[in-house]
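quick q for whoever's on today - can somebody do inverse folding on this one?? i tried earlier but teh output was garbage lol. tokens:
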């Protein structure tokens, strides 16, 4: 009985299953990066909000108080 020597390269090299896939187009890679990075500002804003950093968001009562001040009728006469 003869055995194949495992040191010979032709004994263990399997044939390629599929042809190699070409790399994706540059625009597709950039579009994927833009899609992934577009979520960063929203995430940073949410983390800042949870940590209590003032990011321009008002509480409901404060918002209602400020909008009520704007709705008060103003006098049209400048002298009074």
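ok took a stab at it. sequence:
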């Amino acid at each position: 009985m003869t055995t194949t020597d495992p040191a010979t390269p032709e004994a263990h090299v399997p044939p390629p299953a599929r042809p190699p896939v070409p790399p994706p187009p540059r625009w597709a890679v950039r579009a994927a990066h833009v899609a992934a990075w577009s979520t960063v500002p929203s995430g940073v804003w949410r983390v800042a909000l949870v940590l209590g950093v003032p990011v321009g968001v008002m509480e409901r009562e404060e918002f209602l108080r400020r909008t009520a001040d704007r709705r008060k009728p103003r006098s049209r006469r400048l002298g009074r």
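fwiw The mean pLDDT is 78. also The chain has three helices and no strands. so keep that in mind when u check it
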